[in-house]
Design brief:
This protein is α+β, with helices and mostly antiparallel strands. It has helices at about 5-10, 15-35, 40, 55-70, 200-205, 225-235, 255-270, 300-305; strands at about 45-50, 55, 75-80, 90, 95-105, 115-125, 140-145, 150-155, 155-165, 170-175, 185, 220, 240, 255, 270-275, 290, 295. Strands 4-3-5-6-7-8-9-10 form an eight-stranded mixed β-sheet, sandwiched between helices. Strands 12-11-13-17-15 form a five-stranded mixed β-sheet, sandwiched between helices. The structure holds 1,6-di-O-phosphono-alpha-D-fructofuranose (AFP). 1,6-di-O-phosphono-alpha-D-fructofuranose binds near residues 104, 189 and 226.
Length: about 300
């Protein structure tokens, strides 16, 4: 079943359904840029963003595409994007706020490793974007990988749709996704080994233990695009860990438009997330581009890591 027909058959809030259709259109445009016009989209734009990170051409292209799609929807009040210091005001009477990372995993664009787009949808209120993630109404990500896949969580359900590249329709591929309670995959950038909390090293060392037959018990996987690392672990069971490091004392990942939507999808898929101090979804942000340490994955694995901190 394609996404449009699927949504017609569901009783979800119609405004949220329309936002999903906006994301559908935008992500198909981004898919086309990556897969059909790739010569024009690779490489750096020569600019730096407010976080002093190099901006790739595709970061700007994806940002413009999604802002254009959302600007056609009068229920969207404003957009917060990783690529813009300030929010982009769209419709004064709009009810919803969209926080997005239009192109997650930028450093992977030129080397043909999956990248993604991430979206968090909140209702507008006096706190504007500075609301805890538990108040999200909808969260979604798209992976542009070996196939293009759109995953979203709405009203306690998580679905995944895969793009049919001939008809350019998203077709339901996973209904009611649930993450296994336990897993064998750990995802961490081991380049940070000497600058992270010893308790995390202790946990990772346990993952590296062999069983009584001398076989490994876990496997390490980290591609450097949060969406891709999370998606694999969500489906197969695993843990993703991006802690504080000595040069990134607040962690690497952005709370509002990276961690919150992933944490919301994880929660609805029966997985768990934490900053190692508190549940990600209960953090009230104080800044729009705030970073946080982030751990997300199978319940038993996250609980085991947390047990080292209690
Ligand atoms: P970019 O989108 O700026 O490339 O960052 C990707 C990311 O935010 C996330 O997708 C990765 O999990 C993480 O950074 C990788 O960071 P390291 O390169 O420090 O491992």
């Amino acid at each position: 079943m394609n996404l449009s027909n699927f949504l017609k058959n569901k009783n979800y809030n119609s405004e949220l359904k329309n936002i999903l259709l906006n994301i559908q259109s935008g992500s198909i445009e981004v898919y086309k840029k990556i897969n059909e016009e790739n010569n024009d989209v690779l490489g750096s734009s020569g600019q730096k963003n407010i976080q002093n990170e190099e901006v790739q051409k595709l970061d700007i292209i994806a940002n413009d595409i999604f802002i254009d799609c959302f600007s056609k929807n009068s229920t969207i009040h404003s957009v917060l994007s990783e690529e813009n210091e300030d929010t982009i005001d769209l419709s004064n009477s709009g009810k919803y706020l969209i926080a997005m990372d239009p192109l997650d995993g930028s450093s992977n664009i030129d080397v043909n490793i999956p990248v993604g787009s991430i979206f968090s949808i909140l209702e507008n209120n006096i706190n504007h974007f500075l609301q805890a993630g538990k108040h999200q109404k909808l969260a979604c990500y798209v992976i542009y990988g070996t196939s293009t896949v759109m995953v979203f969580a709405i009203e306690n359900d998580v679905f995944s749709f895969t793009l049919n590249t001939k008809t350019k329709e998203y077709i339901l591929s996973h209904d009611n996704i649930k993450t296994p309670e336990d897993g064998t995959i750990f995802s961490i950038n081991e380049g940070n080994y000497n600058s992270i909390d010893n308790r995390i090293i202790e946990y990772v060392n346990i993952c590296k233990n062999l069983n009584s037959s001398g076989k490994r018990t876990h496997t390490g996987r980290f591609v450097g695009s949060l969406v891709a690392d999370f998606h694999r672990n969500m489906l197969k069971g695993g843990i993703f860990i991006y802690p504080k490091t000595s040069d990134k004392p607040h962690g690497q990942l952005r709370l509002i438009y990276e961690c919150n939507p992933i944490a919301f999808i994880a929660k609805n898929a029966n997985a768990k997330s934490t900053s190692l101090d508190q549940d990600i979804l209960s953090i009230i942000p104080s800044k729009m581009h705030q970073r946080t340490p982030f751990v997300v994955g199978s319940n038993n694995m996250v609980n085991k890591l947390l047990s080292f901190f209690n």
